[in-house]
């Protein structure tokens, strides 16, 4: 009974664990609790499915972006050019 | 139809990721992609007076970028090495000594169709990302696309981890819904 109580959790916690697990930041115990939760909660089950699908799509698309340092340097160069253009 | 206007002050924040992603899928080199994106912004700035307002800012910038990418390929193919048949021998020390079969291209690897589909998917993701509130989009991008650690994002943006996870949750819910409507 005590074990059962520990395994039970509210949907907000389940959603939080699901989000964390998308970034591999949830523990094994949390994952077990999440799987137990989605056995009886359809809303969370749907959320987990949608969330997993989103991660899969992002991975599949191979989208990437510039790192902060390069973005900043590009921004500085552009701001400079913008200023020059305004002066002219 | 309302005329679109240019606002170069917001170009970097709004379009840099989209343009960079567009370029990297075509030139496959981060440094070159960065240079081409920078050149695009500068060229856009110079030719602002030619903008007729018929297309959106992003479409207009993409049309400039396309020209830049074409110019880049023209430039690298204009030297006399153009006619050479380039066979790159495998100099990778890690794979040295492997069976030749292991070096042959995998037929189940990415096809042109996959590449095209991934590009469209990438566009759909960026479109959905642009619909999110600015802060949500920024945190989602940092965490999901750039892969920055939670702690580092919290330090940089001066937010608590619980705050970050709430924002991530909202962003993921909105993104999943948006992609469901626009992609599936």
Topology:
The complex is a heterodimer of chains A (88) and B (184).
Chain A: H1 2-7, H2 11-21, H3 28-40, H4 42-61, H5 68-87
Helix pairs in contact in A: 2-3, 2-4, 3-4
Chain B: H1 11-27, H2 30-46, H3 57-76, H4 100-103, H5 112-131, H6 134-145, H7 150-157, H8 161-182
Helix pairs in contact in B: 1-2, 1-3, 1-5, 2-3, 5-8, 6-8
Quick gist of this model?
The complex is a heterodimer of chains A (88) and B (184). Chain A is mostly helical and 88 residues long.
- CATH topology of the largest domain in chain B, which one? Rna Polymerase Sigma Factor, Chain: A
The profile of the biggest β sheet of chain A is: none
Number of β-strand runs of chain B = 0
Class from helix and strand fractions of chain A:
mainly alpha
Counting DSSP E segments of at least 2 residues, the number of strands of chain A comes to: 0
CATH class of the largest domain in chain B: Mainly Alpha
Attribute tags:
heterodimer; A: 88 residues; mainly alpha; 80% helix; B: 184 residues; Rna Polymerase Sigma Factor, Chain: A; Arc Repressor Mutant, subunit A; 0% strand
């Amino acid at each position: 009974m005590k074990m059962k109580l520990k395994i039970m959790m509210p949907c907000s916690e389940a959603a939080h664990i699901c989000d964390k697990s998308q970034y591999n930041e949830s523990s094994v115990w949390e994952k077990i609790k999440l799987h137990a939760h989605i056995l009886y909660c359809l809303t969370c089950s749907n959320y987990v499915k949608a969330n997993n699908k989103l991660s899969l799509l992002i991975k599949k698309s191979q989208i990437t972006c510039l790192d902060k340092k390069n973005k900043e340097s590009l921004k500085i160069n552009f701001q400079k050019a913008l200023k020059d253009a305004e002066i002219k | 139809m309302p005329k679109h206007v240019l606002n170069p002050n917001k170009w970097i924040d709004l379009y840099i990721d989209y343009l960079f992603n567009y370029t990297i899928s075509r030139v496959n080199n981060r440094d070159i992609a960065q240079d081409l994106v920078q050149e695009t912004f500068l060229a856009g700035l110079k030719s602002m007076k030619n903008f007729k307002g018929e297309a959106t800012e992003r479409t207009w910038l993409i049309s400039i970028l396309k020209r830049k990418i074409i110019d880049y390929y023209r430039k690298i193919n204009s030297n006399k090495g153009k006619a050479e048949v380039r066979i790159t021998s495998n100099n990778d020390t890690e794979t040295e000594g492997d069976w030749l079969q292991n070096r042959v291209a995998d037929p189940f690897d990415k096809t042109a169709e996959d590449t095209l589909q991934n590009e469209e998917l990438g566009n759909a993701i960026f479109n959905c990302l642009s619909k999110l509130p600015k802060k949500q989009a920024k945190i989602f991008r940092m965490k999901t696309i750039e892969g920055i650690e939670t702690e580092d994002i919290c330090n940089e943006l001066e937010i608590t981890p619980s705050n970050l996870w709430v924002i991530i949750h909202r962003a993921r819910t909105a993104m999943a819904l948006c992609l469901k409507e626009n992609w599936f």
